[in-house]
């Protein structure tokens, strides 16, 4: 079976989230960028817990950095399941991505995006720590990591803490 490419720009950049929490196995993980897309951290969750999550929007003037994972089609289906694609939390799109590895190469990769946005929401400090850790772990450019660090955050809400525990239990049972 031929591998597929998945581009992660949010908490899935962090191996402990992607492999641990989501239970996904990859054969390669490469730092990468997607021209024509911009990271925004204003996506509301499915359940109102008062926090925002990462998303990307089209913007021909910029690029978003992330991790390009080589996975199986079954693993991609699992990512979509755990990210709520089937219930409208995100939509899968195919985008052009350039791996920053040497030698650099371009591929078409699947990623997730949403039209749902709420600029009044902020991400939690816990969530942004995952993005920063994933970006550093995979060697994304220092100015991009600094940009992630500069995104305003808020403490986790009690609702988010309680929901995270429930979601973690469900994800653990699916493995």
Mean pLDDT: 91
Q: How many domains, in number, for the residues?
A: 1
Strand order of the largest sheet: 1-3-2-4-5
**If you compute it from the alpha carbons, what radius of gyration comes out, rounded to the nearest whole angstrom?**
15 Å
Please report the first level of CATH classification, the CATH class.
Alpha Beta
Task: Lay out the secondary structure.
Blueprint: E1 4-8, H1 15-21, E2 28-43, E3 53-71, H2 73-82, E4 91-99, E5 105-113, H3 125-137, H4 142-150, H5 158-174
Antiparallel strand pairs: 1-3, 2-3, 2-4, 4-5
Helix pairs in contact: 3-4
Plain-language structure description:
With 175 residues, the chain is α+β, with helices and mostly antiparallel strands. The protein has a single domain (4-174), classed as Hypothetical upf0131 protein ytfp, CATH 3.10.490.10. The chain is built from 5 helices and 5 strands. The protein has helices at 15-21, 73-82, 125-137, 142-150, 158-174, and strands at 4-8, 28-43, 53-71, 91-99, 105-113. The chain has a 5-stranded antiparallel beta sheet with strand order 1-3-2-4-5. A hairpin with a 5-residue loop joins β4 and β5 (105-113). α3 (125-137) packs antiparallel against α4 (142-150). It is globular.
Q: Which key phrases capture this entry?
A:
175 residues; 32% helix; five-stranded antiparallel sheet; alpha+beta; 5 helices
What is the structure about, briefly put?
The chain is of the alpha+beta class and 175 residues long.
